[in-house]
Amino acid sequence: MAKYRVLVGVHLVLLDADGRVLLGRRLGTGFGDGLFHVPAGHLEAGETAVAGLIREAGEEVGVEIAAGDVKFAHVLHSHERVQMFFVVRRWRGEVSNREPDKCSELRWFAVGELPADMVEYCRVALDAVVAGRTFAEFGWQDA
């Protein structure tokens, strides 16, 4: 049997003092354009999940995060990807859109009032995070 390989994505569930989550509207990426999603990206070769999350946070929304402030929240497994979600409540710097070519806007949303126009797997994972569920499978019913 052939080895099964997946891409690993890291997702930032950045929560402000009011418990709102930061979402960005995707633009020009070829996936989910026009829909909201948390700041996220793929791990680079040799990179740990936490290091990748910290790097993506700086690249996408301009904040600095200490590794000790990153809390594991959820893993979502789909056909070709394993998506890891981490909650962060403390950071340094002002949130800003550092990738305007990939994100048309950043907005804060109450976790109980997420927008209808969201990337589906991201909504599934955020709902699981709120419910305290640490694992889900997504998209396998189509296999």
Describe this structure in words.
The protein has 143 residues and is α/β, with parallel strands linked by helices. It has a single domain (7-137), classed as Nucleoside Triphosphate Pyrophosphohydrolase, CATH 3.90.79.10. The protein has two helices and eight strands. The chain has helices spanning 49-61, 120-131; strands at residues 7-14, 20-26, 36-37, 40-42, 70-77, 81-88, 103-110, 135-137. The strands form two sheets. A five-stranded mixed β-sheet has the order 4-1-6-5-8. Strands 3-2-7 form a three-stranded antiparallel β-sheet, with no helix packed on it. The two termini are 18 Å apart. Residues 3-131 form the Nudix hydrolase domain. Its cofactor is Mg(2+). InterPro entries: NUDIX_hydrolase-like_dom_sf (IPR015797), NUDIX_hydrolase_CS (IPR020084), NUDIX_hydrolase_dom (IPR000086). Keywords: Hydrolase.
Anisotropy-based shape: globular
Number of strands: 8
Which consecutive residue ranges, at least 5 long each, have pLDDT under 50? none
From the 3D coordinates, which CATH architecture would you assign? Alpha-Beta Complex
Percent of residues in helices comes to: 10-25%
* Average pLDDT metric: 96
Number of helices: 2
Q: What is the H-and-E element order?
A: EEEEHEEEHE
CATH overall fold name: Nucleoside Triphosphate Pyrophosphohydrolase
Radius of gyration (CA) equals: 15 Å
CATH class: Alpha Beta
Terminal CA distance: 18 Å
Strand order of the largest sheet: 4-1-6-5-8
Largest sheet: 5 strands, mixed
Q: Please state the structural category.
A: alpha/beta
Strand content is 25-35%
Instruction: Kindly give the count of domains.
Output: 1
CATH H-level superfamily: Nucleoside Triphosphate Pyrophosphohydrolase
Pfam family, one: NUDIX
Cofactor: Mg(2+)
GO molecular function: hydrolase activity
Keywords: Hydrolase
